[in-house]
Design goal:
alpha+beta; Alpha-Beta Plaits; four-stranded antiparallel sheet; 16% helix; globular; CCHC-type domain-containing protein; Znf_CCHC; nucleic acid binding
Length: 351
């Protein structure tokens, strides 16, 4: 089930047409407003929300991502057969001299994306929406249909990224929106060696996930990424070097960032979270020591000793060993005589 998100535009601005810069060499921006004085977004909210459905996924610009039916394996041994089956199904619906492409996507750092598969139609194919609708509604493998919904790459340009900022207080939305550009240029651009423009700032008013209403206090930045010379840069490549969080106005406030192809930053320490050469994941944090081997950098569940063969030691204790030795005296038998009127007397030496 797709996520339904409703947003409210907080701020929008663009660079001056003549690329004017201030005394510090930074570009000058002007606010985007309509004839009624309201902020006018550069990119529509409908285009921004498409990036939420592919969060954590990097989809080919001309591809459709669908989820395989239950019980259909995409293991390496079955990929050739599955690839041929999907190409035949596509050729039956849209005959073409050029076959479609079928790839099995992987996430960041080669991690598998589960049961997803990408179908890339040729240039003379219909729209990606029509291809996705036909796949999830009519295609079947082994008598089982594909699991909706389908995903396509966001309709935004390749140098535009949608950044989710979590943990923003509703009382600081206006201040946060107006200082987004300065915060991004100070803390994000130095890590990726780029120059970014925060065009639009949206606030998520409410969201429906799996039929339930949810609100996370989230703000969305629509960012255009350029190199130092002003040329466009692929936002996916630039986001690989972006930090995972930003410090807030106070020392105790931290804003977590979410974007496509985000690095899985360590959530246990924050000292090196902005250093591209020292960043690490939670399971490789150097501040935690393994309880098994005593080394740092991993937990007991991922200890290398678990993969070593068992060492030969003392023989195991046989299960037939008695719980008590034979020299242990047995307890004396007890006798509880009955007295008058049904009373019981415990056995006593002086009884």
């Amino acid at each position: 089930m797709e996520r339904k998100i409703v947003g409210e535009l907080l701020y929008s601005h663009i660079r001056c047409a003549d690329n004017t810069v201030d005394s510090d060499g930074k570009p000058v921006f002007v606010e985007c407003r309509d004839e009624n004085g309201h902020f006018k977004p550069k990119y529509a909210w409908s285009d921004v929300t498409t990036a939420f459905n592919v969060r954590g996924m990097v989809i080919h610009p001309g591809g459709v991502r669908v989820r395989l039916p239950d019980g259909v394996s995409r293991r390496p041994a079955k990929q050739d057969q599955l690839q041929g089956t999907l190409m035949i199904k596509y050729d039956k619906d849209w005959p073409s001299d050029e076959p479609c492409g079928v790839t099995f996507p992987t996430g960041a750092f080669g991690k598998s994306l589960g049961r997803y598969v990408d179908i890339c139609p040729p240039d003379d194919a219909p729209s990606l929406a029509q291809v996705g609708e036909r796949i999830v509604s009519e295609w079947k493998i082994g008598g089982k249909p594909f699991i909706p919904p389908f995903f396509v790459r966001p309709s935004l340009p390749e140098n535009v990224a949608v950044v989710e900022v979590h943990g923003v207080s509703p009382y600081a939305l206006d201040k946060f929106a107006r200082e987004a550009q300065a915060m991004f240029n100070t803390l994000v651009d130095p890590a990726s060696k780029t120059r970014s423009v925060v065009c639009d700032v949206w606030a998520v008013k409410w969201e429906v996930v799996k039929g339930k209403l949810a609100y996370f206090g989230r703000v969305c930045w629509v960012v255009e990424v350029f190199d130092l010379d002003g040329g466009k840069v692929d936002a996916v490549s630039a986001a690989h070097r972006w930090p995972g969080s930003l410090p807030g106005y106070s020392l105790s406030t931290v804003y977590d960032l979410g974007f496509i192809n985000r690095f899985p930053y360590c959530t246990r320490c924050s000292n090196t979270i902005h250093d591209i050469d020292k960043r690490h994941t939670s399971d490789k944090c150097p501040k935690f020591r393994c309880n098994d081997c005593g080394q740092v950098g991993h937990f007991r569940s991922a200890c290398p000793r678990n993969s070593l063969p068992p060492q030969i030691g003392a023989p195991a204790i046989t299960p037939t060993r008695r719980a008590l030795p034979m020299s242990t005296p047995r307890s004396l038998p007890t006798h509880t005589p009955r007295g008058y009127f049904g009373h019981s007397y415990a056995l006593h030496p002086n009884f």
